Amino acid sequence: MKKSILFTLIFIVILSCEKGDDFTPDQTQRENAINLNKNQNFYLDLAFYHAPIHYQDVDRTGSHGLSGKADYITRYDFDGDLNAKNNWSNISKTNNQGNAVGYYSVVETTTHYFITYAFFHPRDWTDIFFLYRIDEHENDLEGVLTVVKKDNSMYGSALGAITVFHSDFYSYKAPNSGLTNGNEDIDGTLTLQNHNGVSRFKTSAEAKGHGIKAHSKQKPGGSDYIVYFPSKTTSEYPSDIYDRNVKYKLVNIFENGGMWDQRFNTSLFSNAKSFQKSYGNGNANAPWNWDDKNDGGNQGLLAGGIAYYPAHLVDEYFNGLENFDKTYTYNPYLGIE
Predict the structure, then answer these.
(1) For residue 131, what is the DSSP state?
(2) Which end of the chain has fewer beta carbons closer than 10 Å to its terminal beta carbon, N or C?
(3) What is the model's pTM?
(4) How distant, in Å, are the alpha carbons of 32, 35, 61, 218 from that of 258?
(5) Rounded-to-integer distance, Cα 72 and Cα 98, Å
(6) Distance CA 23, CA 189 (A)
(7) What is the rounded CA–CA span in Å between residue 314 and residue 311?
(8) Quick check: 75 and 248 in contact, CB under 8 A?
C-alpha cells in the first residue's frame, strides 16, 4: 500500500513537471508578444514624434497629372485591392480619392534609432506627350531615413536625414547637430517647423517624379502645393491643390498583412522588392531595394542597405556621430526582434 502511494506521488510530480514544460513556451511566447506590442506602441510614438512635415509640389499641366491628383500621396492599396497593375488607371476614377498615408519602420541600435518614412504615388508621370511611357511608370515610392540619437529624453534627438530622390540619396544635418562630411558630402541643413509644440524636419517632394529633398534645397514651385502633417490616427484627402493642412496617417511597414508581409505577393511585387506595373518605363522600389547608384559597395551601401543596414549607411555618409554603435538590437528587416 505504501509503495502504491509512493508510486502515485512520483507519477503526479512527473506529470506536473511535464505539464510545466509544455506550458512554459506558450507563456514565454505570450510574454514576448506583449513586450513586442509594447515596443510597437513606443515605435509608433517615436516615428510620430520625428515624422516630417512634408511639402508636396503639384503640377496641373498635361492629362496624366489628373489636375494635380497624381501628385497626392496615398496608400498602395488605395483602390481596395493588392493589384499594383491597375493603380495607374484606378487613380483616375473619381470614386478613388486615395487618402494620405506615410509608411514607416524603425530600426534600433544601442545608441540610435533609424526611422524610415516612405510616401507612395500611383503615378510617376510627365506632361511631355512624346515622353509618355518613356519617362513614366506606374507606382512610385520615395522616402526619408531620419537618424535619431538616444539621450536622456523619451524620443531622443534627430541628428539628420537621408532622402531618396529616385536613384540618388541626399544627406542633410539638423541645425547644430555637429554632423560633418563622411564619405559623402552633406548636401545641406534641414529647416524646422513647429507643429503642436514639436519641431519637425521639413521635407519636400517634386511634382511628377516625387523625388524628395530637404525643403531648404527643394521648395515647391508656385502656389499649387500640399502641406502634409503626420498623424497616428487620421488620413485625409486634400480639399484642393492649395491645401496647407492635410494629415497623413503613419502606417507600419511591418504591420500584419502590411508592405513587408506582402513582399511575396506577385500581384503587388516583382521579385519581392519592386512594385509590379502594367505601364511605363522603370519601376518603384520598396525601401528594402532603395539604392544610390554611385555611393560605393560597402555594407549598407548596396541596394536595400538603407533598410537592412541603416547604421552602416549612416556611418558611411556622416562623420561627427560621436558614440555610435552598429549593433542592431531591433531590426525587423534582418529578423532581429
Answers:
(1) G
(2) N
(3) 0.90
(4) 21, 20, 34, 31
(5) 8
(6) 55
(7) 5
(8) no
